[in-house]
Design brief:
By secondary structure, this protein is of the alpha/beta class. The chain has eleven helices and 14 strands. The strands form three sheets. The chain has a five-stranded parallel β-sheet, sandwiched between helices. Strand 8, helix 4 and strand 9 form a beta-alpha-beta unit.
Length: 344
């Protein structure tokens, strides 16, 4: 760097939560050399352009409180949320976050899974052909449905050639189905079972792919592979619209058993994230107390938190359920916690 043309001065201005470094130069703007020099000395710095084009403020969060966030989905299923949080972190000034895996639930085989297997592995797909819709209401249900095809599950399109259409409750479920080679024909406006039941289109005899169907008196038959614990919201909503619903309880959700060290870790977290009411129940069952703050993927998990005694202001969930909105709520809550801590 040419010291005769450019001058750099560092002034450390401590605050309760941040350190600010002001860089002054004789040039019209802060150069890339300045950035490299500052990052070499302060690797966790964040640059914010000020109104004066010859100055730049660097905010460092090395003194902010570390926020511990618990990811509670079943073992191996937290990767998508972690990736979304890391992606958001790259674009924000938030630092000092520790994400810990504390699985609260695990999945087992439901009583109706053998029936689904029998229907899926029938080479003629006789039973599946009877349905007009297959509705899938969670990524786990998508995985279980795909697994029922057994040796045929590796096929790129296990439902190819069938007139049945597939509805998914939301984006994450759609992704899981498409990754399994199962096309998605319908997704409701909001990722809720109520909206799926209200908005699922009524199929008619003149649909192009109905030319070879003969059971015209049995239109709009729905196959609903579900969790044993799933409420009857979707089923009753569809039946109120004169859909004929065959529900198969193909998987079960049971509490995961936490180790003693995980229980102690759970007691120390600042935020617990929940993707189902079952995870909330399991947390309390294992840990013996509610978390300080709960960020839920949707309303049903939030309602469960509140029903178990959490105050309203300690429970947050996005207006539209889904991974992106969930991650945004988590990041916003982290920022608020760090800001509150900085004022103390």
């Amino acid at each position: 760097m040419d010291s005769t043309n450019q001058r750099m001065a560092f002034q450390l201005l401590p605050t309760s939560s941040l350190s600010r470094i002001r860089i002054s130069t004789n040039s019209s703007r802060v150069s890339s050399e300045h950035v490299v020099a500052v990052r070499a000395k302060y690797p966790r710095a964040r640059f914010v352009q000020l109104g004066n084009r010859s100055r730049c403020r660097v905010c460092m969060s090395s003194q902010t409180q570390t926020i511990k966030v618990a990811l509670t989905r079943e073992d191996g299923k937290n990767d998508n949320l972690r990736k979304e949080l890391n992606k958001t972190l790259e674009l924000s000034s938030i630092r000092n976050i520790e994400m810990v895996d504390l699985p609260c639930i695990q999945h087992g085989v439901g009583p109706d899974y053998p029936t689904l297997q029998e229907w899926a592995q029938d080479l003629k797909k006789t039973k599946l052909k009877e349905f007009d819709w297959i509705i899938i209401t969670s990524p786990e249900a998508a995985h279980v449905f795909h697994s029922a095809f057994g040796s045929h599950s590796h096929e790129k399109a296990p439902l190819e050639g069938l007139p049945v259409k597939v509805a998914a409750v939301g984006k994450a479920t759609s992704v899981a189905l498409r990754e399994a080679g199962i096309p998605v024909d319908f997704v409701p406006s909001i990722a809720l079972g109520e909206n799926l039941a209200e908005e699922l289109p009524w199929r008619r005899k003149d649909d192009e792919d109905y030319n070879n169907k003969t059971h015209f008196n049995d239109f709009n038959r729905v196959l609903y592979p579900a969790s044993v614990l799933a409420k009857d919201t979707v089923q009753s909503g569809l039946e109120s619209r004169n859909f004929s619903v065959t529900r198969l309880n193909v998987y079960d959700t049971v509490p995961a058993t936490m180790t003693a060290s995980n229980i102690e870790l759970a007691k120390s977290v600042d935020i617990a994230t929940f993707a189902s009411p079952s995870a909330v129940k399991s947390w309390v069952f294992n840990v013996g107390q509610l978390p300080k703050k709960a960020i839920c993927i949707g309303k049903s998990s939030a309602v469960q938190c509140k029903s178990m005694g959490m105050p309203d202001d300690a429970v947050v969930y996005p207006a539209a359920p889904g991974l992106e909105g969930w991650a945004e709520c988590i990041m916003r809550s982290i920022a608020e916690l760090q800001k509150t801590e900085a004022k103390r």
